[in-house]
């Protein structure tokens, strides 16, 4: 029990040390007009440097990340399919997981988040 507490304490302390080092290194000591203005190959910037971001693109990227993680979660199950160690409860859990993901795809499709047109 003492080793576990020591490990947790060490991990928390290391996290705080890295946090403060990052905060210290992230502080900009010189802030001037040239530092905060956008640089476009030596020319004066044309228009605003802050372009409005498309929320639909962001939602599509989030959907991609969710289904990318789904593939990572399904990979060990696919590798175990041929072995005799996979029980009926594993198959039922896999089936439930796939039904949940398919329901998510159907919901996103009906909502219109999978459309590329703006």
Automatic annotation (TrEMBL):
Which superkingdom? Eukaryota
- EC number per UniProt: 7.1.1.2
Q: What reaction does this catalyse?
A: a ubiquinone + NADH + 5 H(+)(in) = a ubiquinol + NAD(+) + 4 H(+)(out)
GO molecular function terms noted in the UniProt entry: NADH dehydrogenase (ubiquinone) activity
Pfam families (alphabetical): Oxidored_q4
Keywords on record: Electron transport, Membrane, Mitochondrion, NAD, Respiratory chain, Translocase, Transmembrane, Transmembrane helix, Transport, Ubiquinone
| Localization terms from the record | Membrane; Mitochondrion membrane
Query: Is this entry keyworded Translocase?
Result: yes
Q: How does it sit in the membrane?
A: Multi-pass membrane protein
Q: Which residues form a coiled coil?
A: none
Its job: Core subunit of the mitochondrial membrane respiratory chain NADH dehydrogenase (Complex I) which catalyzes electron transfer from NADH through the respiratory chain, using ubiquinone as an electron acceptor. Essential for the catalytic activity of complex I.
State which residue ranges cross the membrane: 6-32, 53-79, 85-106
Q: Does the keyword Transferase apply?
A: no
Q: Which gene encodes it?
A: ND3
InterPro entries with a match to the protein in the record: NADH_UbQ/plastoQ_OxRdtase_su3, NDAH_ubi_oxred_su3_sf
Q: Which family does it belong to?
A: Belongs to the complex I subunit 3 family.
Q: What is this protein called?
A: NADH-ubiquinone oxidoreductase chain 3
A GO-annotated cellular component: mitochondrial membrane
């Amino acid at each position: 029990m003492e080793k576990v507490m020591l490990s947790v304490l060490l991990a928390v302390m290391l996290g705080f040390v890295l946090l403060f080092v990052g905060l210290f290194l992230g502080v900009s000591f010189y802030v001037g007009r040239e530092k905060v203005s956008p640089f476009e190959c030596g020319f004066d910037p044309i228009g605003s440097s802050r372009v409005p971001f498309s929320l639909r693109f962001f939602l599509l990227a989030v959907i991609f990340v969710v289904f990318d993680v789904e593939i990572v979660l399904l990979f060990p199950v696919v590798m175990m399919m041929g072995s005799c160690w996979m029980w009926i409860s594993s198959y039922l859990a896999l089936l439930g997981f796939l039904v949940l993901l398919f329901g998510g795809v159907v919901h996103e499709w009906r909502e219109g988040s999978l459309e590329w047109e703006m």
